[in-house]
């Protein structure tokens, strides 16, 4: 019976992911293997990561031909650095992440990792080097251990436990009736938004990629959970090239560099202090968020 249900589960999951705007891209890719229009070049070799430097060079992209979302976006993230991407809703922040994972190809310009155009390397090798902590993680109807190890079927119990510890979800699992064997997902134990995010973090730690994409949750976590998760994310971003898709400015203050997207372009770039001193878009957004915080609406 389980064999009959698993494909049905997967179909349901793919459907939900599509409906939710592909928020769990990695899981999606493993299921359908590859999006239809993206192909490996005939002579594609593996991506060779030396440090994990990422560049977007004059990238032009639209999902539909008559609506450009990115209109000549350029930026560079040095190996091991953290870049935060901010901008109004719909500015194209998540689109940048999808292009780096090569879910789509740009219509102009290029995306490189350590100097290699990502279109010229195999998709498999590209995706092996990038970890994504999505806004919302889709859990499989299986044990919490399986969900953490998902994508690393060869992971040992020790490795799974170490990843859970790194993601600070080990204490929670220890209190579950069947520990790592406890069933989660729609037919098992329901996890909170914060717990699901920790499963995603543990999964990423097991994968141990040199490049990370953190898609900050827009859904409200209580402020203590949020601060604790932020601390965990800061730790895993150390020594990795990290792109943070930021919805709250308070989490980008420590980024090495921030880019502000507006109308398909990089409108401003700099550190938090530099951007505040510019008194432009970022400074306005910051002032607005601070005011909202004081009013207690955020
Ligand atoms: P938010 O802060 O609200 O998450 P964002 O800056 O991450 O927004 P994107 O998700 O990158 O924005 O979307 C940029 C634009 O592209 C939006 O106008 C959106 O409607 C459009 N878009 C996103 N995904 C698709 C898609 N699969 N097909 C067509 N248009 C899309």
Automatic annotation (TrEMBL):
It comes from the Bacteria. Residues 54-288 form the ABC transporter domain. It is found in: Cell membrane. This is ATP-binding cassette subfamily B protein. It comes from Sphingopyxis panaciterrulae. The lineage of its organism: Bacteria, Pseudomonadati, Pseudomonadota, Alphaproteobacteria, Sphingomonadales.
């Amino acid at each position: 019976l389980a064999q009959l249900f698993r494909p049905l589960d997967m179909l349901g999951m793919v459907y939900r992911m599509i409906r939710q705007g592909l928020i769990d891209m990695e899981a999606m890719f493993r299921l359908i293997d590859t999006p239809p229009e993206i192909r490996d070049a005939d002579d594609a070799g593996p991506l060779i990561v030396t440090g994990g430097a990422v560049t977007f060079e004059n990238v032009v992209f639209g999902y539909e031909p008559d609506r450009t979302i990115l209109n000549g976006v350029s930026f560079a993230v040095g190996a091991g650095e953290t870049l935060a991407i901010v901008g109004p809703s719909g500015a194209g922040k998540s689109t940048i992440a999808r292009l780096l994972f090569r879910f789509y190809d740009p219509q102009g310009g290029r995306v490189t990792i350590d100097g290699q155009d990502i279109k010229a390397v195999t998709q498999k090798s590209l995706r092996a080097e990038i970890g994504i902590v999505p806004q919302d993680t889709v859990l499989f109807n299986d044990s919490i251990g399986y969900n953490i190890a998902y994508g690393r079927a060869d992971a040992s119990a020790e490795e799974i436990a170490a990843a859970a510890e790194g993601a600070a979800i080990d204490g929670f699992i220890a209190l579950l009736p069947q520990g790592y064997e406890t069933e989660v997902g729609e037919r098992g134990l329901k996890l909170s938004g914060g717990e699901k995010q920790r499963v995603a973090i543990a999964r990423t730690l097991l994968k141990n990629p040199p490049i990370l994409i953190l898609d900050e949750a827009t859904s409200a976590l209580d402020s203590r959970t949020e601060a604790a998760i932020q601390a965990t994310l800061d730790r895993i971003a150390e020594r990795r090239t990290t792109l943070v898709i930021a919805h709250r400015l308070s989490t980008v203050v420590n980024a090495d560099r921030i880019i502000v997207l507006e109308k398909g372009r990089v409108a401003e770039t700099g550190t938090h202090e530099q951007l505040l001193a510019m008194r432009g878009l970022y400074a306005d957004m910051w002032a607005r968020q601070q005011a909202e915080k004081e009013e207690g609406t955020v």
